[in-house]
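Hey Z.,

So I finally got round to the D-glutamic acid thing we talked about over coffee. Here's the setup:
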Amino acid sequence: MQRIMAKIGIFDSGYGGLTILEAIRRELPQYDYLYLGDNARAPYGTHSFDVIYRYTLQAVKYLFSQDCALVILACNTASAKALRTIQQKDLPLLRSVSPEDGLGHTWKRSVFCQSEGRSLNVLGVIRPTVEAVPSITKTGHIGILATPATVSSESYVLELEKLSIVNCQLSITQQACPLWVPLIENGEHLNPGADYFVDLYLRQILEKDPLIDTLILGCTHYPLLLPKISQWIRNNGKRFAASDIQVISQGYLEAKSLADYLLRHPEYESQLSQGGSCHYLTTENADRFSQSASLFLSSPVQAEHIDLE
Ligand code: DGL
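And the result:
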């Protein structure tokens, strides 16, 4: 049988998934990656379920059409709102589709898609994050900072409650931060004006539960605000918390989880090409993406524009 050459697709509504991509490439530099940011339609976090599901499915299909065998939803909002439906309803169909079926995209490279025995899967970011919590919290008081859509999905609460039953009782407080993603997408996140919005949501969540000792950054954009979040905690954290506040950002956890997944699923290892490359796609202007992504990644990238339908 012909050796199938497939990539790992990384999807986010915009720049946030770059924080996951970077960590994954550090952990697994040998594979080839395709990053897709739907910047033209970001933020996702204020949209309804139907819209987030439709946009995410379009992106997943597009990445499969570009020979990705695994797609990581490097977006909590998409993971919370769309992952389950895609895994249960759409993946069985996508796994059996032939290139001519035209499920919204032409399968561009027939080698991968027509080969027998190809494996396709979509993975999210919430589960790997939640699994890290018990080893971090001392008080059992957990704060979740996320987009309005992720908060309303209750995905973190549900996943953490499963742990509560198994391990320990957790007290969970959520805080929607609707203005953080727009700050980041517009490159304003390290400017002095961002301080106001960092203070706004951190103060709100810690006033709701001053015993929080573990804050989950439940949006892949938020690590880009980490310098300001850490500074705020240094300046104000002691006023609220029972002990030091640990901030969980997801890149490292997702990277470890993917490495573990690949070990447990050798069928992907044999499909994935190992050229160490990464290509970037955006639904926005390619130059604009390239410029901003280069700042976030601290090395230059050259993006290509695509349209999702
Ligand atoms: N990075 C996405 C997440 O993790 C941001 C969502 C948005 O576009 O609002 O939720």
